[in-house]
Design a protein that fits this description.
The chain is mainly α. It is about 45% helix and about 10% strand. The protein is built from three helices and three strands, in the order H-E-H-H-E-E. Strands 1-3-2 form a three-stranded antiparallel sheet. It is globular, with a radius of gyration of 16 Å. The N and C termini lie far apart (about 65 Å).
Length: about 80
């Protein structure tokens, strides 16, 4: 049976919280699917959405981790 919209929304929030509440955590797709008790297909789709939204990032080796934006570079001079 396909998950309902409510179940998908709850899973998105749960996956997002896994990374936001534990900033150093790195998980593969398989690890995350086991942790949240969801299918690989559904988890992969949610991870793609969270990567596109810059909530998480895909690290080398296929693990996912919290996204940390690069700090903006300070300008070298100011226009007067």
């Amino acid at each position: 049976m396909a998950p309902t919209r409510f179940e998908i929304e709850a899973l998105v929030v749960r996956i997002q919280e896994e990374f936001l509440h534990s900033p150093a955590v790195r998980m593969t797709l398989n690890q995350l699917a086991l942790r949240v008790d969801a299918s690989l297909v559904l988890c992969k789709a949610i991870l793609r959405v969270l990567v596109d939204a810059k909530v998480i990032a895909e690290a080398p080796g296929g693990a996912y981790q919290r996204f940390y934006p690069h700090p903006a570079r300070a300008s070298r001079g100011f226009a007067a």
